Prior knowledge:
Layout: H1 5-13, E1 39-45, H2 50-67, E2 71-77, H3 82-94, E3 99-103, H4 105-114, E4 120-125, H5 128-131, E5 145-149, H6 154-164, E6 170-176, H7 180-195, E7 199-205, H8 211-221, E8 224-227, H9 231-235, H10 237-247, E9 251-253, H11 256-262, E10 265-268, H12 271-286, E11 297-298, E12 303-306, H13 308-314, E13 323-324
Amino acid sequence: MKKTTSSLLASILCLTLAGCSTGGSAGTEPSGEPESDKISVGIVQLVAHPALDEATRGFREVLEAEFGDGIEIHYQEAAGDSTTCVTIASTFVNEKVDLIMANATPALQAAASATNEIPILGTSITEYGVALDLTDFNGTVGGNISGTSDLAPLDQQAAMFDELLPDAKKIGILYCNAEANSVYQAEVVKAELEKAGKTVTVYRFTDTNDVAAVTQQAVTENDALYIPTDNTAASCTEAINNVAQPAGIPIICGEEGITKGCGIATLSINYYDLGRTTGEMAVRILKGESISDMPIEYFQNPVKKYDVERCKELGIKIPDGYEPIE
C-alpha cells in the first residue's frame, strides 16, 4: 500500500503551484522548540483561500476547545508552493510536533515524505489513493496517515449540467495539471458527461500565469465549463471570472468557494465541518488512539447550491432542491 519514497518525492516536485498574489509571506515561523508540557500540533496549508481556510478554522476550534491552554498550534501557509510545503513539514518534524495536519494534497504529500512516525491527518484531500499513489487503497491508508476527504459525488456534479444547462452540448473542463486530485476528478466527470451525450474538451493550465489564457480558449470553444476542487483555480477565480462572465459562459464548480468567485452552481460540502471532523480525529489520536487503522472520513450530506446573481444575469432557471449561496 505504501508508495516508494522516490515516486512520492517525484510527485511532490512536479506539483509547482503558485498563488495569484505575489505579495505576503508563507506564514509566521514557529517560535522555537514547542514547550515540553504542551501538546504541539503543526498545520501546513498549501494556500489561503476560503475552502482551505474554513477547514483549518474548524480543525483549530475543536483542538482549542478540547485542550485549551494545553496545546500549541503552529500554522504555516505555503503561498501555493509545494516546495515550501516540504520545508514547512520538515520544520515540524525537526521540532518534534505531536501531530501534523496537512491541508490540501501537496501539503499531505510533503508531510508524508517528511515522516513515517509522527501522525499525519489530511484534510481537503479529494482521493487519498491518488494523492499518495496507493495501488490498493481501500479507504484506510495505514501507517501514520489518515484524515478527511472533500470528495462530493462526481456523477451528481456532472448531472447538474442537464439540470441547469440542458442546451449546453459542448463542455470544457478546466484545471491545473499539477494537481493530481484535479486530474482524477476531471477524468471521472468527463466520462459521466460523455455518457450523457456531451462533447467534452479538457483544458489544463500549468500555474497561475496561464490561467487567463487557457480560460479564454475554453470559453471560446464551449457552451459551459466545469472546474473541479482545484486549489490553483480557487486562488484565481477573479481571473477566470473576468474572462467567462463577459463571454456569458456558465461554470459549474466542484466546491462553493470557486462558485462564489466565478461559477453558477456546485454540489457543495461544508469545509468548516470537514475541518471539525479532522479535529475530532486529532483529539482521538492525541489521547492515544492508533491512527494506523483509522479510515478516511467523508462529508456525508453535500448540498446543491447556486450563485443568485450570476444565474439571474445568465437567465438560468433554478429547479427545486438548490439552495442560494449566502
